[in-house]
Specification:
- There is one protein chain.
- This protein has two helices and seven strands; from the N terminus they run E-E-H-E-E-E-E-E-H.
- It has a single domain, classed as Hotdog Thioesterase (Thiol Ester Dehydrase, Chain A, Roll), CATH 3.10.129.
- 29% of the residues lie in helices and 36% in strands.
- The protein has a five-stranded antiparallel β-sheet. A two-stranded parallel ribbon has the order 1-7.
- It holds the Pfam family 4HBT.
- Belongs to the acyl coenzyme A hydrolase family.
């Protein structure tokens, strides 16, 4: 299987925060940001494998600082680690105060995608190669996150088996 550099999967998105994008706290809706995150992460995943890549999980979204209407929101994503058919994508969210120019990391997120063939079956993907210090840090710590992800998935499956599927009105 071939390899690709992490930079080949890197994507960027910059948006202005409009009044219709904010909640009653006058900050960007978390769901709106999560939509941006999934969107850009899916592009990074597709750039690695050049086939359909589907979201297997949103492993984490950590909201660190609020994003306000006076800010722009910039997202940067890239593939940090690859398994056989799955990949981890990291998304960094930067808020920039458009008046002062101050920037902060507003959120971080890890998502897992799986590459699928035309029959929706998982297929092998290229391995990703880190180059920068940031890419190496994420690459070196990815195996631990993968182990935690597998554990959480197993716990979720057990929990789902406990839940009922009947509606309250039935």
């Amino acid at each position: 299987m071939d390899t690709k550099y992490a930079k080949e999967t890197r994507c960027f998105k910059v948006s202005r925060v409009f009044p219709t994008d904010v909640n009653n706290h006058d900050t960007l809706f978390g769901g709106k940001l999560m939509s941006y995150i999934d969107d850009i992460a899916s592009i990074s995943a597709s750039k690695l494998c050049r086939v359909t890549a589907v979201t297997a999980s949103t492993d984490s979204v950590d909201f660190l600082y609020p994003i306000r209407p006076t800010d722009s929101v910039s997202l940067e994503s890239f593939v940090t680690w690859t398994g056989k058919s799955s990949m981890e994508v990291f998304v960094k969210v930067i808020r920039e105060d458009l008046r002062s120019g101050e920037r902060r990391i507003a959120a971080t997120s890890f998502l897992t995608f799986v590459a699928l063939d035309e029959n929706n079956r998982p297929i092998p993907i290229p391995q990703v190669l880190p180059e920068t210090e940031e890419e190496w840090k994420l690459f070196e710590t990815a195996e631990h996150r993968a182990v935690m992800r597998r554990r959480r998935r197993e716990e979720s499956k057990k929990f789902a088996d406990f839940l009922v599927t009947r509606y309250p009105w039935e």
